[in-house]
Amino acid sequence: MKVDRFTKAVVLLNCCVPALLLGWDAWHNQLGANPVNFAIHTTGILTLIFLLLTLAVTPARRLTGLGWLGQFRRMLGLCAFFHSLLHFFLFFEYDRAGNIADTLSEMGKRTYLLVGSLGVMLMVPLAATSTNAMIRRLGSARWQALHRLVYLVAVAGVVHFYMLVKADTRKPLAFAAVLAALLGYRGVAYLVRRRGRSDRAETPTLAAKPWSGSLAVSQIIQETPDVRTFRLVSTTGRKLPFEYLPGQYLNLTLRVEGKPVRRSYTIATPPTRMGHCDLTVKRLDDGQGSRFLHDSLRVGDMLEVRGPAGRFTFTGQEADSLVLIAGGVGITPLMAQLRYLVDTGWKGEIYLVNSAKSLQDIVYRQELETLRRGCPNLHVTITLTREPSPDWTGRRGRITTEMLAETVPNIANRRVHVCGPEAMNTEVLRMLHALG
Fold first, then answer.
1. Which residues lie across from 350 on neighbouring strands?
2. What is the pLDDT of residues 105-149, one digit of tens each?
3. Which of these, 381, 375, 384, lies nearest to 406 by C-alpha position?
């Protein structure tokens, strides 16, 4: 489910309540005999609490299956950053009288101040990149790698607190115990994933050695008004002269007006059907390759082929469930994976969310319906963005966060493959981040 803005605002307000109460008590001189130390101590404690809450989101989400919890992770992290800045400001302004030289001198004398300041500085790049725009700019992998710094920040915060107190270390040790449990969970989860990858690596996969040569066009199938499937067969035998993985593509060299035009097209058929391979192509007015295939290619013609290539693959060994999100003819590589999983009797749950303009633009429409009826572990959702007929009783409009949350339960814990127009891919990536 997607958490609405009101709920997020309520959570954010509650995160700010401790600081507001602290300000209220300070305004009314109710912070005790040493108000500065009390305020510094309180903001430091709040920083640690919000840091640990941020780190607890991922295990809580995975253990409970509540993917929407991930939507609060960045908010809690920003609250931790806010309280850490307030913590440092109070120390600098009221304990050191706003004197930079005196502050640096004090930090040089007291190690715990250096450790705490390091933690605050490490939070700056995390806070600066806690927006959807920065996630898209950095890319998911680099963004996640950068934000693992939060563990180092938490360690610095706990060490700072422990070194600060002189006698009663129960509070910092309690924080240390919670942090150790969260780090332990992270370590165990990493080892489990690594073990899973190792076990899967021991299972032999299909070979995918590169090959080059010619294939013959044996059939041309009209899928939609502007999409055709070109079925290619070997010229020397009953089987294709190469092997491939579901989701890989072929590189074609087309002879257009005597000049070579090189294009890449996904193999839509699975490697369980080695008698032929299908290339499903949408005709684009500005697409030199697609225009040639649609307008000039005939049954019996030969095509120069090189491949297979590509790492956008899935064989059923990589995860226990799979979500396929397609837009238009982007369904092609996902269809290869879906057909392969069905052919091999894969037992994992498969969720297909497919967006098309209208009923007549649904690529593989009849086959999808047949597969849906025959496979209890396949769940198909089709949404149409421009269907004028009232006879269509399915979903309408573009893919949304709410749609993904409703049609794919516990999506945050599933492997997701996305293929469609670039704008759709970017927007779906944003939705997936919002869903944790």
1. 322, 378
2. 988 889 999 999 999 999 999 999 887 677 767 766 677 788 889
3. 381
